[in-house]
Hints:
Strand content: 25-35%
Radius of gyration: 28 Å
Number of helices: 4
Amino acid sequence: MGLYYKFSFSIFISFFFLSCNHDQKSTEKKLINPKKKYSIQVGNARYEGPEKYMYYHAAIKHGDTDLDKPSRFNSYKPGYKQIELEKALKKNNDIKYSRSTNSFNQLYATYAKDNALFIERGPYNAPGRTRAFLVDASDLTKKTWLAGSVGGGVWKTSDGGKNWVNISSDMDNIAVTWLGQSPSNPDVIYAGTGENWIGTIGDITGAGIFKSTNGGENWSNVSLRDIDGYVDSRFSNISRLLVDPNNSNIVIISTVGGGGSFIFKTLDGGTSWSKVHQSSSRIQQIISAPSDFNIQYAAVRGQGVLKSLDAGTSWYNPGGIGIGGTVSLDDPDGIFSSGGGTFGRLELAVSYQNSNTVYAGIDGDVDSYLRVSYDGGTTWNLLKNEDNSADDWLVPQGWFDNTITVNPFNDSIVYYGGR
């Protein structure tokens, strides 16, 4: 019997070492020959890493592997969710479709909202991007903030960011890109939706302008409508919005959609809108001078800067950057000091003291450019570091990541960022 146990134990030990050796060799083999990961190449576009998922998602919606080809599908109209919701609610009032516990109406006797239990499962460590941020003017302690996520709606904190609650359950589209409020009537808040004014495959199309008259507790869509009651396609994506600090009914917005890019203005809080400017290139920003709301500037992708002297009612080319102005792009007073070239997205920042002092962060095709105008956009001066070097802060993603602002107390200090 003892001999049998010794023999069995010897076989076990041998098998154990052989197995370990085999596993070790398998592991080494895997390390030596890792599985190759392939990128997706479509025309001149290459998708790798997380971008592959974005491409798959876009291709499915587009109906073709080549996103540059016309889509096989008609896109949903902006605001269609609200229309369908209203239809469903109207149908729900019909006794045939009502939520009933009547035993004689077993077909409609249960309803998920009344019976289902949902548990938040995360992830908790992957917040979405936040484009819009507003410090509530009604709170003198400055601890009440509103944040707009491009895929998560509007969130509010009353304790300086320690705790947040979502306040956008009334919105049928939560791709929030901008928030606006007038200190003269802080209960009125506007939210713009739709990020497709940037131009990437991961952008979420919006549903126009939403308005709250009770500090964000409830929202209603105040966008321009088409003849079928849907949100006008020109309101699909709101790049920026401005609210008159002295009149909460006056709002100016820049939009992309409906075959072009536009600037609209309302004088009655969104009841009616007037188109005040149209462009074939994307108007990606409008900004007002902090010292004078009548002075406004607009950044037009790849073309230059527009200006308004009447609170956004009319727009003209001040002459300094592109748009057929008197100063060429490669002039020392234009964007490029030498060599010519083209540019894409540009972001503007206006001085708090002087409405004629404007900074521009410009994503050029070969470099990044920081420019300043001291005459309201007529001429522009190139800024460099003290050692005469330049910061190429907008490569490789200045078309997406581009921000700039001026110190409110010192015009000589400007903050800019990108990737």
